[in-house]
């Protein structure tokens, strides 16, 4: 895919300002505030009324042990299988719990710092129903795994670890039913879990500690979402829908646990506010819409919004976030209709996610232009759907 570093499309200029000129934007940092000031100026010059509200948040933990514990438990279950099948029997369930436990730990941390949200509306619009385009402005903690090949291996360890867990669970059931398994199988299992689990645990440590607390530039995650939302704000200021109001929300402290979105959601009206989240839309041409988040406690996104997305882009694919999350989840928990959009080059998250490689030269201007065009189609289809439901 062609990269056009010198392309001067407005969305790319915004990404360049956020990710290069300002740089990494940790929640609550001077850089995040500088980015908010930049957006405020752009939106006010387009005629928007801007309000900024403080957001209390808990900084990201120095170390989250849950996925490392999953790797160690995989090794233990494999080695203990000849002695007791119970750990292997519980292993798939534990792996399903890990993302939920990690999120619960994030939610329980005590807020100690302040970020902010930015909300923009056109003063002349006084419509009761609103479609809010949302994008988070902060950038995440940098992974200590710098090479794309090792990032891919790390993701594959998570993928294959769960498959091995299911395999061990089936063997545990066989053991409980009295099936005698050959010693060579037990030996092979020990070698397998030691390799996969050991690599998984080591890469998890490197992921969390290898960058020594640095933060990613965040060109795609999520300066791209911010830039596309800003372009839509300029378009909507010239020609806004007649049936509903379009507003724009730029959240802080998303990477720390969706703190900005949680605060914003509490102030919205579930009867009249709908949120479309934009996150990582600067590379690739395959559009994904999120249908669900979570493993045990599952949040499902709004079906009507997803149907409008499918009408506007018939090739859009569904995605279920089992490990990751996003601002859309905070709105869903408050009863606000919401869904989220993402562009990808393949089926998985790209190798630049939360790394020092998430820079402007990885952004595809054609992807940004595609996303702006799609959202213009989406607004038109959404207006048709809105009017049909009102009639």
Q: Could you characterize the architecture of this molecule?
A:
The chain has about 400 residues and is α/β, with parallel strands linked by helices. β6 and β7 form a beta hairpin. The N terminus is likely disordered. It is about 50% helix and about 15% strand. It has 11 helices and 9 strands. α3 packs antiparallel against α6. The protein folds into 2 domains: about 250 residues, Aminopeptidase, CATH 3.40.630.10; about 100 residues, no CATH class.
Task: Give the topology, please.
Layout (H helix, E strand, L loop, with lengths): L9 H13 L7 H16 L3 E9 L8 H15 L5 H23 L4 E9 L8 E7 L11 H29 L6 H27 L9 H20 L6 E7 L7 H8 L6 E6 L7 E8 L5 E2 L2 H10 L4 E5 L5 H7 L3 E8 L20 H26 L1
Parallel strand pairs: 3-4, 3-5, 5-9, 6-8
Antiparallel strand pairs: 1-2, 2-4, 6-7, 6-9
């Amino acid at each position: 895919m062609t990269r056009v570093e010198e392309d001067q499309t407005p969305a790319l200029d915004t990404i360049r300002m956020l990710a290069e000129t300002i740089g990494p934007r940790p929640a609550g940092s001077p850089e995040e505030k500088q980015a908010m000031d930049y957006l405020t100026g752009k939106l006010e010059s387009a005629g928007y009324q801007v309000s900024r509200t403080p957001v209390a948040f808990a900084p990201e933990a120095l170390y989250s042990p849950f996925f490392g514990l999953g790797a160690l438990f995989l090794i233990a279950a494999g080695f203990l299988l000849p002695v007791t099948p119970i750990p292997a029997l519980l292993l798939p369930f534990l792996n399903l719990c890990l993302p939920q436990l990690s999120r619960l730990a994030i939610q329980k941390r005590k807020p100690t710092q302040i970020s902010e949200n930015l909300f923009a509306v056109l003063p002349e619009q006084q419509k009761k129903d609103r479609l809010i385009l949302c994008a988070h402005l902060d950038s995440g903690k940098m992974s200590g795994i710098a090479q794309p090949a090792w990032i891919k291996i790390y993701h594959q360890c998570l993928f294959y670890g769960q498959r091995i867990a299911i395999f061990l669970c089936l063997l545990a059931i066989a053991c409980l039913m009295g099936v005698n398994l050959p010693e060579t199988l037990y030996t092979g299992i020990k070698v397998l879990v030691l390799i996969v689990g050991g690599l998984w645990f080591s890469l998890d440590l490197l992921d969390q500690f290898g960058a020594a607390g640095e933060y990613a530039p965040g060109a795609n995650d999520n300066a791209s979402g911010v830039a596309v939302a800003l372009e839509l704000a300029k378009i909507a200021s010239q020609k806004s829908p007649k049936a509903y109001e379009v507003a724009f929300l730029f959240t802080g402290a998303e990477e720390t646990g969706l703190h900005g979105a949680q605060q914003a959601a509490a102030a919205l009206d579930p009867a009249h506010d709908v949120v479309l989240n934009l996150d990582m839309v600067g590379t690739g041409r395959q559009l994904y819409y999120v249908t669900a988040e979570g493993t045990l406690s599952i949040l499902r996104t709004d079906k009507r919004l997803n149907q409008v997305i499918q009408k506007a882009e018939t090739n859009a694919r569904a995605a279920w976030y089992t490990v990751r999350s996003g601002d859309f989840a905070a709105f869903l928990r408050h009863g606000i209709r919401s869904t989220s959009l993402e562009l990808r080059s393949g089926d998985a998250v790209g190798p630049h996610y939360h790394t020092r490689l998430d820079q402007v030269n990885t952004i595809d201007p054609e992807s940004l232009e595609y996303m702006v065009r799609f959202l213009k189609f989406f607004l038109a289809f959404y207006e048709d759907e809105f009017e049909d439901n009102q009639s």
